Amino acid sequence: MTMIAALVLLPLLAGLAALLVRRDGPRRTVLLLTAFVHLGLSASAWRRAPAPLWNGWLALDPAGRLFLGVTSLLFAVAAVYAVGFLAREEKGKQKDADEAGAFFLNGPEAIFVGCLLFFFSAMTFVTVCQHFGLLWVAVEATTLASAPLIYFHRNHRSLEAVWKYLVVCSVGIALALVGNLFLAVAAAPNGGPAVPLVLSEILNQAGHLNVPWLRAALVFFFVGYGTKMGLAPMHTWLPDAHSESPSVVSALLSGALLNCAFLALWRAAQTGVAAGQAAFVQDLFLILGLASLAVAAVFILGQTDFKRLLAYSSVEHMGVIAFGMGIGGSGVFAALLHSVNHSLVKGMLFLLAGNILAAYRTKAVAQVRGVSRLLPVTGPLWLAGFFAISGMPPFGTFLSELLIVKAGLDSGRWGVTGVFLLLLTLVFIGMSRCFLNMAQGRPDGNGLVSPTKEKRIAFLPSLFLGALSLWLGLTVPGFLQRLLQETAARWGG
Amino acid sequence: MSAWDQALWVAFILLNFLLLGTSRLSVCVRVLSAQGFLLAALPWLSSSAITGHTVVLSAASALLKGLVFPWFFMRALDAAEVRREVEPYVGFGASLFVGLAALGFCVWLARALPHPSAVSNVALPASLFALMTGLFLIVSRKKAITQALAYLVMENGATALGMALLHWEPLVVELGILLDLFAAVFVMGIAVYHINREFDHIDTDRLNYLKD
Question: What DSSP state is assigned to residue A55?
């Protein structure tokens, strides 16, 4: 069995096993073991590209390796946190944090762990798909596998969130299917021999693609996969799904799933660039990127719920990535680096938000005061995370955002770069208000006064991700630099 | 291009108008089933050669889209005790006019794109129209079950588009798509069940708690 098959099948089979195991302890062990074995496999695939499978339909190109690595790393960290999360969740009825007097039940833990692993398998599948049809199947599978995770806390809000998630994402992805068909027509407009929809084949034929059909295909791809990536104005599912799901799931949705959607869009857009439509592709990226930044800025400025705040921040950062892609040139490298940085920091912040939510039992910014006093580790990390997510030095996001701005100025696009900086500033103002208010002050009014001793399993995952982000800010390690450059070089344009 | 083939595409268009104009959900489910059988019949009537590939897909399409999904929806309708879509966001008469405009747009779009040879001139607008009907039904109807149904109509449109463009995905991809569709109906079905239990109804306009 080859490496690629092992990467996809391992979490799939482990997920089936998790559904069958009856006791909590062994099931959590399965989760941890799978996550770390997968991480080891991904690391070896990172060092040496594994052999392609199925005539090259499944292969790990540089872009696939990059996002596989990020997904696998984030999942391993999230799996550790998930074990702590599942242990601290009470059995039976739980008080609803957002509505006084309401109660809800948790979904069965077997289904939660099983779907977590299925979700992981589907995301891995996305990273290895070179065939556009299979890629579509994989992206839709991520939606279906993650839906039960959002509905783990069974109340009417999470139900609403999951319904929106299912409908909006499924509809979006159905449009990407139309993009696939149009791309096939673009490859063989006169009914000639059909070109297989494999990325390398399409790129070889790029010069012969029929331009009107290709452009139509690109629009459908941008709307379809852009929905899943959370680009405005198709982002509407994102704040609800991220705020209502358990924090560990939010971390994976934001840090891993959005990247996978970006990868799908990357592959589709790559065909456009190869066919000489780079300007068209860049315009689409620029428009969606600035729209996402603007929407995020508006909703972050008045935000009262800290998980929704983080969710809109994800919309913002997807906008930053799209903006970097839209600038093109060295902006592509910067956008890729930013997607890695964003995954680390956003994973960290959502896991910390889970700790705050567990201590304060509310998501309202106004009711959370004095996190630094009450939670001696989560508090300082929460502040560090704020600086990291706002692109402050010495964190990695500073470097990648700086590179994007530099690419924008170098290409002579002063106007859009100015708008970009203005929107980032607005977001920063909105974020700082919430984060600083939460961290400072005295934790009164909730019956909480004295500092609590925090469990290591609750803060070590975030600490680790924060340290990685710091590391990426100080120096981009050689292996990452090489892979990013290799990936960006494939973009062309 | 046989006359039968053309007739099937016209039937496909008319079925979409039936979906837009009816309030009775059982009719919608029957239309969905009819569309599934039409899609299964199309490859047999078109001029392209019949291969093992088409036989497998046609059988799978008839079984899933013609029988399994409609049966599933009928059961869900019984369980939720709903018969009609009451007071949609856009009324049924107005929906028909929207449909007419959408059909006009689809004809225009099909003409705007360079015409691939060997493609019937009804097929492309007809399948795009199914796609848009599904999209419109999702945003204009309130019941969760209607939205799930409309998603399948959209998906039927995408499948029809593949047939109209004479583009067959490789078998494993087509089966993967059907598997995803099956899983989607399954997951949405569970969600509808929970919505029904939580709220005692399946109107999505009451799912309005989350907003900024």
Answer: T
Q: What is the DSSP string of A415-468?
A: HHHHHHHHHHHHHHHHHHHHHHHHHSS---SSS--SPPPPPHHHHHHHHHHHHH
Min Cα separation B112/chain A (Å): 9
Phi/psi at B21 (nearest 5 deg)? -100, -10
Question: Which residue's structure tokens are 């630099």?
Answer: A481
For A171, which of B138, B180, B212 is closest by C-beta distance? B138
Provide the 3-class DSSP secondary structure of residue B60: helix
Task: Tell me whether residue A433 is in a domain.
Answer: yes
Choose among B167, B92, A116, A399: nearest CA to A407. Answer: A399
Q: How many CB atoms lie within 10 A of CB A207?
A: 9
Q: Answer yes or no: do A308 and B212 touch at CB < 8 A.
A: yes
Could A178 and B161 be called an inter-chain contact, meaning their C-beta atoms sit closer than 8 Å?
Answer: yes
Nearest Cα of chain A lies from the Cα of B168 at a distance, in angstroms, of 9
Minimal Cα distance from A301: which residue of B? B212
Q: Do B135 and A171 touch (CB under 8 A)?
A: yes
- Chain A residue whose CA is closest to B183: A144
Q: Give the helix/strand (H/E) hosting A379.
A: helix A378-389
Range of the domain at A436: 277-493
Q: How far is B7 from chain A (nearest CA, A)?
A: 23
Per CB-CB distance under 8 Å, the chain B contacts of A181 are: 158, 161-162, 165, 167
**Structure-token pair, residue A429:** 């103002």
| Amino acid identity at B113 | L
Q: Rounded to 5 degrees, what are φ and ψ at A394? A: -100, 30
Q: Which two tokens stand for residue A414?
A: 């002063």
Residues A486 and A60: beta-carbon distance below 8 Å: no
Amino acid symbol at A26: P
* Residue A377 domain flag: yes
Structure tokens at A127: 């990273």
Query: Tokens standing for A50?
Result: 């594994």
Averages of pLDDT over runs of 10 residues in chain B (212 residues) are 80 93 92 92 75 84 92 88 82 92 92 74 89 92 90 92 77 84 88 82 77 76
Give the residue extent of every domain in chain B. Answer: 3-210
Q: Do B116 and A170 touch (CB under 8 A)?
A: no
| Residues B92-116: tens digit of each pLDDT | 999 999 999 999 999 998 888 887 7
Asked if the structure places residue A459 within a domain, the reply is: yes
Q: Is the dihedral of CA A360, A364, A367, A368 positive or negative?
A: positive
- Angle in degrees, 0-180, between the axes of helices A378-389 and A330-360, rounded to the nearest 10: 150
Q: Give B190's Cβ-side CA count (13 Å radius).
A: 13
Does the residue A207 lie in any domain?
Answer: no
Number of domains, chain A: 1
Q: Chain B contacts of A152, Cβ < 8 Å?
A: none
- Nearest CA to A149 among A219, A251, A39? A251
d(CA A305, CA A282): 34
Report ipTM (2 d.p.).
0.92
Measured between beta carbons, the chain A residues lying within 8 angstroms of B135 are 171
- Which residue in B has a C-alpha nearest to residue A99's C-alpha? B209
